Amino acid sequence: DAGVIQSPRHEVTEMGQEVTLRCKPISGHNSLFWYRQTMMRGLELLIYFNNNVPIDDSGMPEDRFSAKMPNASFSTLKIQPSEPRDSAVYFCASSFTRDSRGDTQYFGPGTRLTVL
Amino acid sequence: SQQGEEDPQALSIQEGENATMNCSYKTSINNLQWYRQNSGRGLVHLILIRSNEREKHSGRLRVTLDTSKKSSSLLITASRAADTASYFCATGKLGNTPLVFGKGTRLSVIA
Description:
The complex is a heterodimer of chains A (116) and B (111). Chain A has 116 residues and is mainly β. Chain A has strands at residues 5-7, 10-13, 19-24, 31-38, 42-50, 53-56, 65-71, 74-79, 88-95, 106-107, 111-115. With 111 residues, chain B is mainly β. Chain B has no helices and 11 strands. Chain B is globular.
């Protein structure tokens, strides 16, 4: 299994531009998580999906952030317009969830976003 | 809000020594997990201990869980330079809530 795949691995963009991050979860997993990691705030959960349905997006910083999961094998996190404070490493993780949400998560390699 | 809080924030030891990291949490849990993150990489799951377990081993890793004190410890024995990484605890609860990660302990193992 290739694991969780994220693209791009690095993104440098200018303030005001739209940024789209992509994630392919592990085949057969039914939960997908988007995280943001910075030195100041640590690892923050932005949004998670279960069976392609967004369950909790309370961690999304503001309306500039949106996430979709059109099918079981693909998700996107979009920032529009981007701002310098959005610079961080964005991780996608997936898991197979039965009754408990506290299941082991498998992380992708992350996308390092720099907004100038 | 952060559920798990790791202690210490940073730890530096010599190769061959044991490394102990602690995690405290606030509410009842279903399980507690430890993850490792190498610089510039994603988190990797190390071990999971359920709330009805007290101790678990995996290779050079030993995890303990004390639900009465709401705390866990991760012991890495005979550390190696390759163990240098950040270690995170994460708590899992029953119901519609995901894992909650702490801020991590940065471990440096000096050869």
